[in-house]
Amino acid sequence: MERRLQHKHQNPELRLSVDERKNICLYEQELIMHKKWSFVKDYPPMPLSSSDMLFQLRNRIIMEQLDDDLSTEAENVQMMLPSLNLEQMDILRTVVNADDSNNGECFFVYGSGGTRKTYLWKMIVAALKSKGKIILSVVLSGIAALLLPFGKTVHAMFKILVNLGEATYCSLLKHSELADLIPQTSLIIWDEGPVSYR
Fold first, then answer.
1. Cα(134)–Cα(122) distance, integer angstroms
2. Contacts of range 175-179, beta carbons closer than 8 Å, 24 or more positions apart
3. pLDDT at position 21, please?
């Protein structure tokens, strides 16, 4: 199965965890039983496969987003934490608490150039990625995207056209891998969002 996924996602470095392998085996067992008109749920001690994990394994973009070393991200958090000032610490705590409580919230962080906003974004991304969360970092220009952790332009990430007009629409398809990624995302950092479209 690992080789099939490596080929499908065109990623020879792709490795499955023990839980992912177990889940795939359970799923394939369910398929075999299904063909014989039998169901795993009818045998209560048997564990069921996790549909969330299978969904993630089928989506290349989600797999890429989750392909982080959690221990490295946790080390980054421990290394960066002492260098945050009180305001940055408060923002970090607020964002992480909102994610933990699963509240859909929108935050606006204001600061002129040189106030270490990019450093704060890196800290927030490391804190949430260390928990296995998906974070999307976007910005208007390609050069600024290089500064953000895992940064992309808004146009590349969300398929928004560069020249907008009244008849313009986003070319994000409803049943695409990207459309499936967005509901799985814990946080979108949109740097310089207010100046993006005036």
1. 14
2. 177/59, 177/60, 177/61, 177/62, 178/61
3. 76
- Locate tokens 């990207």: which residue? 178
Query: How many whole angstroms separate alpha carbon 63 and alpha carbon 11?
Result: 10
CA atoms within 13 A on the CB side of 154: 18
Backbone angle region of 14, left / alpha / beta, with phi > 0 → left and psi within -120 to 50 → alpha: beta
Number of Cβ within 10 Å of residue 5's Cβ equals: 18
Structural tokens at position 14: 């792709």
* Cβ contact 165:177 at 8 Å: no
169: its two tokens? 């629409």
Phi-psi region of 114 (alpha: psi -120 to 50; beta: other; left: phi over 0): left
Q: CA 72 to CA 69: how far, in whole Å?
A: 5
Share of the chain above pLDDT 90, in %: 7
Distance separating alpha carbons of residues 75 and 171, to the nearest angstrom: 38
Tell me which of 54 and 123 has the higher pLDDT.
Answer: 123
- AA letter at 4: R
CA–CA gap between residue 170 and residue 166 (Å, rounded) = 12
For the chain, how big is the Rg over CA atoms in Å?
Answer: 20
DSSP label at 43? Answer: S
Q: Could you tell me where the DSSP H helices lie in the chain? A: 2-8, 18-35, 51-58, 60-66, 70-80, 86-100, 117-129, 142-145, 154-158, 177-184
